[in-house]
Amino acid sequence: MGKIVNMPQFDMSMTEGTITRWYFQEGDFVDKGESLFEAETGKASNAEDYYDKPGKLLKIFVQEGETVPIGTPLCFIGEEGEDIPDVSVPTASAAQPEKASAAAPAASAPAAPKPEKKEVSARAKLDTSGYSYDLTVIGAGPGGYVAAIKAAQLGARVAVVEKDELGGTCLNRGCIPTKALYTSANQYNKMKNADIYGLCAEKVGFDWSKIMARKDSIVKQLTGGVGALLKKNGVTLYKGEAVCKDGHTVTVGDETLTTGYILLATGTTPLHVLQNVDSDVTILTTDELLSIEALPESLAIIGGGVIGCEIANIFASFGVSVTIIELMPTIVPMVDKEISSLLASSLQAKGVRIINGIGTKAVKKQGKLNALELENGETVECEMILEAVGRRTVDTAFAALDLERTPKGTVVVDDTMCTSNETVYAIGDITGGYMLAHEASKQGEIAVNYLFGNHQEEEKVIIPSCIFTEPEIAFVGMTEEKAKEAGYTVKTFKFPFAANGKALTLSESEGFVKVVVDAAYGEILGVHIIGPEASSLIHEAVAAMNLEATAAAAGNMVHAHPTLSEALMEAFLGASTGAIHI
Predict the structure, then answer these.
(1) What is the pTM of this model?
(2) Is 191 helix (H, G, I), strand (E, B) or coil?
(3) CATH class in words for 3-78
(4) Quick check: is 528 catalytic?
(5) Which cysteines are cross-linked by disulfides (predicted)?
(6) Which residues are annotated as a binding site for NAD(+)?
């Protein structure tokens, strides 16, 4: 059966293309991998390779120099004597058909329109020479300190106000300390299972105090590094509680700073939702848990999100009896369902008990233990309780500014990170996006580039997410379910690490790479990984999506062998032209 070749979508902004050259004439034989034609999209000329069943170029529907919409039939390749379908070729100005005819199956209709980016109103830049600083940043977490350094590099006079330790939650009570403990837990698990690698390890154990000391040393090194970077770039640091009096005035204790602009990077603090808690019961957040001097025998975690699952993995690895109580039907409900299911199985294999779809009615003291009374009548006893159910905006610094907020309390910003006050900008957790350090850093760069640099509106910012459990999880873009909800005709492919040679040599073959693709144009909509080094592997997917590569293009990139990244290659190929090793 013959194949109609349609005008492809070389990039996501493309709506039409002009055929500038046919590499074959009617009657010529076309083999797999040969360049079939060249098209100009307005941005560049692109050669289109042919990867379907080889055959003769029986009919060219669109001639050189003609401009047609994406999805338009361009030619028909088949066997000698095969009937050529009767197709209708629209002009570039004509609307694309809602449905392709049976005789000429054009690519499926584009997805539902993606939301347009909010327009940035034209704002005159201030003359900030009359102020003490051009920019005052409140909060020295990953968003604030990166923004401050970047602004200083652009020539601005910058002050940073920090009431706590440099580095914010991420460096002191989040990303870095948990990853230090995660690494110790992983190494301990490997040592306990040394026989898998043909090694003998006797009397394997751990010293919690040394593990915590290592964690503290890493945190101290990094926070000290932030201080050195601020100083190196000429940023003035103020230690204390900042209070914004107006859009140009910040007080820090007895000092008053005048500033052209203010950048809010105040972050969030753990949320408390448990009710009916006895007065003698201690409920910990990660702030306290990451400083405990001794491990408990049992730990109940309220919340099966990213933080809850990471802590469960760490503590279970060191022999703590862990129970996760999650109100939603699944743990980490934001991730791909297949990944959530595999993570649950992996945690349960480590002895973690997972209770889904049930809330907690009350928490009582029962001797030396705590008793959590669940809504189904069950009681869970434990020595220690961690509440990991989300975080809330820290707004004490800017409460007087009366900024526009969402019903959840987050600050409303435009694409330049400007708030409803034109001299006040906001980044990071308080803007309601992903609570990720790297997103806050990127937002900080966007804001100061707009204020002090050569602002260029970015078409998109692709943000990956990682969960440091064992196995690791990483994802970017849409899940299969979200892509379908958005109106895409979806094609997916899943490649298991069990079929990857490097994973087998590491004895880490659990997991897979799942690719979600728009079946019409091959656009990569999402990539989801659970398995070894997922947090590093995901960036190949981020690069491919940022460069608007199709799944076929990403899969045809040569990968070194044997490497874990070959699993990505195979998944991309599987979602396009066909995987090899499965």
Answers:
(1) 0.78
(2) helix
(3) mainly beta
(4) no
(5) 170-175
(6) 303-310, 326, 390
